[in-house]
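Blinded run. Sample ID left blank on purpose so nobody reads anything into the name before looking at the predicted structure. Input follows.
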Amino acid sequence: MKVLVATEKPFAKKAVDGIRAIVEQAGMTLSLLEKYTQKEELLVAVADADALIVRSDKVTREVIQAAPRLRIVVRAGAGYDNLDLAACSERQVVAMNTPGQNSNAVAELAIGMMIFMARNQFQPGTGTELRGKTLGVHAYGNVGRLVAGLAKGFGMEIYAYDPFIPAPVMQSEGIHVAATLEDLYRRSDYLSLHIPANKETTGSIGQALLSLMPKGACLINTARKEVINEPELEAILAQRTDLKYATDVAPGNMDALKAQFDARVFATTKKMGAETQEANINAGLAAARQIVGYLQKGDKTFCLNK
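Blinded prediction complete.
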């Protein structure tokens, strides 16, 4: 059986070597398609693949249709909006992600962005400290939990809102549970956003919630750009000259935001939450192990299209 690693942005060599070792030890062959620039290259490469590992590469219906032997595709990372789950299901292709493997990298970036914004993007002038401030964690999953843990070390008070995590679980970890989403935003000097992008969340973070935040508050987005209502973000930043926004994925109206609000807004030049050597290796190895587990034992632990 053939496992294809298709990455416009390649894994580190150590990750590729580890993936190869896992795959070949299982009696399978590994094929690499790295730094490709045309969709057609991917369509050709998947034609004889039984399994596929990608990073942020788009696995569309066209890709699935071009791979008649494909049985499983694994997104090396937590987010999976680059996978067409409906197309996978129609072809009975198992789709998986690798939750938790990039979490620490994203959490550290979120904290770093808080410090960066608190210190005026390291420009001259008097900044503020994180100690004594309230952090709101919107979605207390793998990343949210780690952000909360790191923030405690800075002496921050932590509130969280997540309807999928029982309140006693969060409370047992020293987290205050916000009664409602509005309550969370109303309390948060810093709001760390960790919700996925789906039908329910797309465009859900806008003026109604952001207008509730305290004076001088800052929204930190290491999730997805799609969850932000960008026109409403621009409107509330114009209305509330004290608010700040930092994101790991630039909004479509970033040029307009920067022109109007300057140091009150910041976006990384390219999404870099998972861009650490450790996360790169962890996610790649996890993807390879999950493929072997499924093809040899039928293990569907992280199946997304159940």
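Unblinding after everyone has recorded impressions. The CA atoms of residues 234 and 257 lie 6 Å apart.
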